[in-house]
Amino acid sequence: xxxxxxxxxxxxxxxxxxxxxxxxxxxxxxxxxxxxxxxxxxxxxxxxxxxxxxxxxxxxxxxxxxxxxxxxxxxxxxxxxxxxxxxxxxxxxxxxxxxxxxxxxxxxxxxxxxxxxxxxxxxxxxxxxxxxxxx
Amino acid sequence: xxxxxxxxxxxxxxxxxxxxxxxxxxxxxxxxxxxxxxxxxxxxxxxxxxxxxxxxxxxxxxxxxxxxxxxxxxxxxxxxxxxxxxxxxxxxxxxxxxxxxxxxxxxxxxxxxxxxxxxxx
Lengths: 135, 121
Hints:
- The complex is a heterodimer.
- Helices cover 75% and strands 1% of the residues of chain A.
- Chain A is mainly α.
- Chain A has one domain (3-114).
- Chain B has a single domain (3-116), classed as Glutaredoxin (3-Layer(aba) Sandwich).
- In chain B, strands 2-1-3-4 form a 4-stranded mixed beta sheet, with helices on one face.
- In chain B, strand 1 (3-8), helix 1 (13-24) and strand 2 form a beta-alpha-beta unit.
- The longest helix of chain B has 13 residues, at 96-108.
- Strand 1 (127-128) of chain A pairs antiparallel with strand 4 of chain B.
């Protein structure tokens, strides 16, 4: 097996493992947020959670496979490890970006849902009057 | 607070069009529309100054709190599911003066706006 192929295989193994780990973390911890957003509707929260994780996998694995090709020749193990490091670094940054974007989506959903439950009017009244109840 | 009564100006096309639009919106708080200075309005609120309600939009909650002018607009916005967030945004100290200016300008010129946009009867 040439050094390039070894590099590719190690790259794929690490990237996919990282993606699975981050997605799993997101799936496990995001659920609590979503249950709160949907006011304890577990079925809906699980469904949205699952859909978000699927999107997360698609984008990340898509990026991993697009970024696989090296485009230059590797002559020894040192260059192989350097190339691998650059590739993994990029995957980590994309994963981090996606992860924070997901957190942003969760927190925005949560804030919005809390806002709509807010019973406090935006402004105070100008005066009070008596209300004649209809007979 | 469970319902808001909106005292609108029945002579203004813009107000009637807004009334139609509001009726279609999803609400978090029920809105009741009563023409201002009408028999019904006087019967419901015997102590309210009904000359003022003709000047600008007035909203009265079921517990008797009166909101007048720009505040009434914000309360109507607040009652709508899609725009509740906006009512808070427009009521922040930074935006409230602008909100009041814009809303008052629309209110004061509602007949001209109705005429210009062809909303008159």
